Amino acid sequence: MNNYHDLLDRYAYRPIERLRAYADLSGELADLLKTHAVAFLALATDYGPLAKRSAAVRALHQGARLPAVCTLLGIPYALRRVPPEACRTALPWTEWSMGDASALSNFIPLGHARLDCWMEAVFFCGAACSSGFALWIARQHRLFEGPPLEARLLLPVALYAWHSFRPDAPLHSLLPNLWSPKMGVRRTINETRRWLTYVAARLHLPDPVVIDPWLRPATVGEYELIPLLSHRDLLDEHLAMRHCVDRYGARVARGQCRLFSLRQHGRRVATFEVVQDGRNRCIVNQIKGPRNRSVANDVREMVEQWVSTTPPWPRPVWIQKSCAIEAVLADLMTPYRADRAHVLRWIEPVRLSLIRSALSTLALRAGVTS
Questions:
Q1: In angstroms, rounded to a whole number, what is the distance separating the alpha carbons of residues 45 and 232?
Q2: Contact in structure between 100 and 135 (CB atoms under 8 Å)
């Protein structure tokens, strides 16, 4: 190829000098600018393992067909339709299966979708989870309409999908439901949100370690008042009662409240929260029946009477500080980091606060408001 500088000028990648220097190495590499812009970008920006890049370059110089070169490199041949203008940044390494790489051709967006953001998101999801998850995100064209979508916003749903296929991972048991490629974006976001709520409870209340007079079972007449001490207590109560008690782990851990399950002959009747007012008196902040229904007046009065006769608990009671919570998460994420070690620079940091913030932004983008 005699003149490839016009093609280079079409690349959105910067610094363009790096691409120009790579194209100058040989005519075969320069020809790749025209035949497969993404493959050229991948080679020029050190995509994937060195052994694979070297094998792809050797095959290219030996006259191998382009599909074979792409297979060696680990870049889907179908992306030959992507123009240089969509090559904006270096791509994270993705281990494409043959089936997923081939099927990708069916989902390259046309029209209003941002092709550059789409490609970055596809490779990010492949790096953060799998080529199957990358193929799933490739189908979600609505996410890529309008303003640019930052690929890192997809990390929460990628983590949710990865853990769905890893029953050996500590956080797998907290999944409300397993991810499936048949799920739509909105359900995936909602399931991820539920999972992260359970994870947060696990981080704040790893074990029933808060000890004070309040956190002992009590009996009033035919009712049992069972303290909710651990993340599993909160999740079981949440699943049985269908309300949001699973979100209260941090409040319990910080000594801001105490939670109890009210049961009658073993049947869950209500969940109630006890707080201290400005005079350090204990009061019932709320009491909810199944699905947040109201409870009978006599039940409420019984609970309020019991609370009013019990001395305040020691304040403040801290189980963990925020830095310790992130350390616990890092430990629980060890299997994920080990599996994704080759692409961690694209994925880090995996911190609860950042993951939840990213998911909230993604939810707004997808129109998920509840």
A1: 46
A2: yes
> What residue ranges of the chain are covered by domains with CATH 3.40.630.30?
218-308
**Tens of pLDDT along 104-156?**
999 999 765 689 999 999 999 999 999 999 999 999 999 998 889 999 999 99
Give the ranges where the chain is alpha helix by DSSP (H).
Answer: 5-9, 16-23, 27-35, 37-44, 50-61, 66-73, 98-103, 115-128, 131-138, 155-164, 185-204, 231-241, 249-253, 297-308, 322-332, 334-339, 344-347, 352-366
What residues contact residue 138 under an 8 Å CB cut-off, 6+ apart?
104, 107, 108, 118, 122
CB 220 within 8 A of CB 262: no
Banded pLDDT at 320 (limits 50, 70, 90): very low
Strand order in 218-220's β-sheet?
A: 218-220, 223-227, 258-264, 267-276, 282-288
Dig out the tokens for 351 from the structure: 């911190």
Q: Residue 284's beta-bridge partner residues?
A: 274
For domain 218-308, the CATH superfamily is Gcn5-related N-acetyltransferase (GNAT) (3.40.630.30)
